[in-house]
Write a structure and sequence with these properties.
The protein is built from one helix and nine strands, in the order E-E-H-E-E-E-E-E-E-E. It has about 140 residues and is an all-beta fold. It has a six-stranded antiparallel beta sheet, with no helix packed on it. The chain has a three-stranded antiparallel beta sheet with strand order 5-1-7, with no helix packed on it.
Length: about 140
C-alpha cells in the first residue's frame, strides 16, 4: 500500500518503521519494557525504526511505500492537528489490506540507530477516529 500524509492544521511527529523477518523464537527471547504477557507473543512484530520527522501545514507530504516506512506512528505536537492521509490501494480486509494498530515496546537496552523495535498489535484505540471517503476522480495508475 502506498500512502501520502499531508498536514492541514497543526503539527505532527511521524515515526516510520519497516517490518523485519522474525525468527521463530525471537519474540520469547527479546527483553522488552514492558514485558509482554505470554499470550501476546503471537501479536508481536519485529521492526526497525527508520526515521522520525515533524510536519506542519507548511511542510511537504510524508510519503510511505509498501516496502519502506509502511508502519508509522503519528503523534500530535503542541495541540490538535488535522491531516489528510491518502492510501492507494485503500484498506480492504478481504484483499489482505486491513488497518492494524500497534503499541511500541522499547528494548531494555537501546541499540544504536537504526533501532530495532518490537510492536505489539492492539485493538483500535478508543480515542482515535478515522473516516474514509471513496475517490470519485479519474483512475490513478502508479
Amino acid at each position: 500500500m502506498n500512502g501520502m500524509l499531508k498536514v492541514l492544521y497543526g503539527k505532527v511527529r511521524i515515526s516510520c518503521f519497516d517490518k523485519l523477518e522474525q525468527p521463530p523464537d525471537a519474540a520469547t527471547e527479546a527483553q522488552l519494557n514492558p514485558p509482554p504477557l505470554p499470550y501476546q507473543n503471537q501479536a508481536l512484530r519485529r521492526s526497525i525504526l527508520r526515521s522520525i520527522g515533524e510536519y506542519s501545514e507548511g511542510s511537504g507530504p510524508c510519503v510511505l511505500t509498501p516496502h519502506k516506512d509502511n508502519l508509522h506512528q503519528i503523534d500530535a505536537v503542541d495541540g490538535p492537528t488535522a491531516f489528510l492521509d491518502i492510501l492507494a490501494p485503500p484498506y480492504d480486509p478481504d484483499d489482505g489490506r486491513d488497518c492494524h494498530y500497534y503499541k511500541v515496546l522499547q528494548p531494555v537496552s537501546l541499540p544504536p540507530e537504526p533501532q530495532e523495535i518490537w510492536l505489539l498489535e492492539i485493538p483500535q484505540p478508543a480515542e482515535f477516529w478515522c473516516g474514509g471517503e471513496a475517490y470519485p476522480g479519474p483512475k490513478v495508475t502508479l
